[in-house]
Design a protein that fits this description.
The protein has eight helices and 25 strands. It is of the alpha+beta class. The strands form six sheets. A seven-stranded mixed beta sheet has the order 15-18-19-20-25-23-24, covered by helices on one side. A six-stranded mixed beta sheet has the order 3-4-5-8-6-7, with helices on one face. Strands 9-10-11-17-12-16 form a six-stranded mixed beta sheet. Helix 1 (about 35-40) links the parallel strand 3 and strand 4 (about 45-55). Helix 2 (about 75-90) runs parallel beside helix 3 (about 110-120), helix 4 packs across helix 5 (about 230-245) and helix 6 packs parallel to helix 8 (about 400-410). The longest helix has 18 residues, at about 185-205. The chain is globular and about 50 Å long.
């Protein structure tokens, strides 16, 4: 819901796009105009979309924000941050931002963005990734931010590269390996250093890669060849060598025995500079009702089983990682593209590639796939998604790609960014996260 004022400014309602796991409703669309106006008064702020997730006693908010006022980059950054603050003030309880990804148009804007963000957050700076991926809508900046209610959760800021969140016997760890540039290093050396850096940061929190359920790898010029080898293939080689020294099969948290390798979910995507920005998310708990499930897709060859023609050492990640906490399941969906078995399909066709990518996600998270891997009653649909990231290789494909996504998924908090995908013939990659409940088996009366 938005209103256009006489001066041309747009007043956006702060109603959530979706409300997941709420006792009020499974999800609430923002287009219920009367409810939006009653509960969420309009503000003269940038365009925003957000999802409210209620996990037991804890509220989380996923926000996607882009500025609309124009002006210099610094003005856009302040506008976006003001929008985030306005959303959080509407929640009716104290909220803290824990992690955010900032998509910028140019690497030269990163120092300015960092200065503005540090001034805004002070000592409570969330884990922040600055990624050079221009927003598809032409803005200079777009922000994905996650926040949690501090009425129920304890948030600790251990420096710019480490944040922990504790509630209900759970401890979530958000760590970054920093932003590395080549500086004479090979892509393999750069990638190896990034993983080692993340391990050191995790160690400061009393954690390690055995706790990690999700990684994000933003690699500059991902398909560029160095000495005849693509940079992404060298990242995969470094990741494989790194994981070889870690026992991911025997984690502190119970892992469902599904016969697959237990690698974290991951996104490996390109950026417009030679940097490598990395982050990971881990979970620690002693609760007995928490379990992990590494999901693989029946439509696709597991990435870690790809033939050597795609990489000398295959990508070591799961298609998704599901975290079951009591009766709730959070499913972190890896970067997904138009691949069937191990082959790229619909080459050159953005509409068909977007359709196939969404179908791959749909099959990955559906109840049938969860049951196939041992979790009866689990599963999710597009209605359970809290947000999407859509990475579009060619700017001219943005409108067509977005039209497919909105037709298939509906009005969902999303960011579309220009980014190279890990194969030259892939035009789009999509990642997301879903929140769902375990469905109890229906009891039928005896006959």
């Amino acid at each position: 819901m938005s209103q256009v004022h006489a001066d041309g400014l747009v007043a956006h309602s702060l109603a959530p796009d979706r409300r997941l796991l709420s006792s009020r409703a499974l999800f609430t669309m923002r287009h219920d105009a009367e409810a939006a106006e009653l509960e969420f008064p309009p503000h003269l702020i940038g365009e925003q979309h957000h999802t409210v997730i209620e996990l037991g006693n804890v509220k989380r908010v996923a926000m996607m924000v882009t500025p609309e006022g124009g002006g210099e980059f610094r003005d856009e950054a302040w506008e976006a941050l003001s929008t985030i603050r306005a959303i959080l003030r509407q929640q009716g309880e104290p909220m803290a931002v824990t992690m955010q990804t900032v998509f910028v148009r140019d690497r030269a804007d990163v120092p300015v963005a960092r200065q503005v963000f540090e001034a805004c957050y002070g000592e409570k700076m969330p884990l922040t990734l600055f990624v050079v991926q221009p927003p598809c809508d032409g803005r200079g900046i777009a922000i994905e931010a996650w926040a949690v209610s501090t009425a129920s959760a304890k948030v600790e800021y251990h420096g710019e590269d480490l944040v922990t969140v504790s509630y209900d016997g759970l401890r979530w760890i958000y760590a970054s390996g920093g932003s590395l540039h080549l500086d004479g290093r090979t892509p393999y050396e750069q990638s190896a250093e990034a993983f080692s850096s993340m391990r050191r940061v995790l160690a400061r929190a009393g954690s390690g890669f055995q706790d990690v359920v999700r990684t994000w790898l933003y690699q500059g010029c991902i398909t560029e060849e160095v000495d005849g080898v693509e940079r992404y293939r060298e990242l995969n080689r470094a990741r494989t060598d790194f994981f070889a020294g870690i026992d991911l099969e025997h984690r502190p948290i119970s892992v469902a025995n599904n016969g697959h390798a237990i690698y974290p979910a991951s996104t490996g995507i390109g950026t417009l500079c030679h940097g490598l920005v990395t982050a990971c998310m881990g979970l620690q708990t002693e609760r007995q009702d928490v379990q992990l499930l590494a999901l693989e897709n029946p439509l696709q060859t597991s990435a870690f089983d790809y033939p050597k023609e795609y990489s000398v050492k295959s990508p070591k990640f799961s298609r998704a990682m599901a975290v079951r906490i009591g009766d709730h399941v959070t499913t972190w969906i890896s970067g997904t593209a138009s691949i069937v078995n191990a082959e790229t399909v619909h080459k050159g066709d953005i509409v068909k590639q977007t359709e196939q990518t969404l179908t791959n996600i749909e099959r990955l998270i559906d109840a049938q796939n969860f049951a196939r891997l041992g979790w009866e009653g689990a599963g999710a649909t597009f209605d359970d998604l809290a947000r999407l990231h859509v990475y579009v290789k060619r700017p001219e494909d943005y409108e067509a790609c977005r039209a497919v996504c909105e037709r298939r998924v509906g009005h969902l908090p999303s960011i579309y960014a220009v980014a190279d995908v890990c194969r030259p013939d892939l035009l789009v990659e999509i990642e997301g996260v879903a929140f769902s409940r375990i469905r109890k088996p229906s009891s039928k009366p005896a006959t």
